[in-house]
Write a structure and sequence with these properties.
Length: 154
């Protein structure tokens, strides 16, 4: 991840625009670089997500992710609408960027939405999360900030 890179996610907690620490979130499209302006990217995402209604997902079991299986997460129970959102956005972002981080892992394991624990902050199996918007976060000078949000309004 370098300055200018972006990530598409759902913030599960907090609504700050500058993120000093990662809030709980569900990554949809990991880090990518694109020359699109924030407004152009928002317009493209809004168009692609048109007709997507807000929805609820359920937090599932705990698991260990990462190459060393040392990153605690809660997986999101499947099936859920995040799978469709991933499909809608992945090919679009691939065509509008210079590549998406971790694409080799996605090809190997598929889309596995999850919430990574953030220190003591976490969710628990059975928790319900309402998703009514998708955020684009950009990193600049080491700071992560919400660059834009797309409301899901069906």
């Amino acid at each position: 991840m370098k300055d200018g890179d972006r990530i598409i996610l759902v913030l599960v907690e907090g609504h700050e625009t500058t993120l000093k620490k990662w809030p709980l979130h569900i990554t949809i499209i990991p880090w990518f670089a694109s020359e699109l302006s924030a407004n152009d990217l928002k317009q493209i995402l809004s168009s692609k997500l048109k007709g997507t209604k807000p929805f609820q997902v359920e937090v599932g079991k705990e698991a260990m992710f990462g190459e060393k299986h040392d990153i605690p997460v809660n997986v999101i129970k499947l099936p859920n609408p995040l799978e469709d959102i991933d499909k809608k956005l992945r090919s679009l972002i691939e065509s509008k960027s210079s590549g998406i981080a971790y694409s080799n892992l996605r090809k190997r394991y598929g889309f596995n939405p999850h919430i990574t624990f953030q220190g003591e902050r976490r969710k628990y199996p059975g928790d319900k999360i309402r998703i009514n918007k998708i955020q684009v976060v950009r990193i600049d000078n080491g700071l992560k900030r919400v660059e834009s949000e797309v409301e899901l309004n069906g």
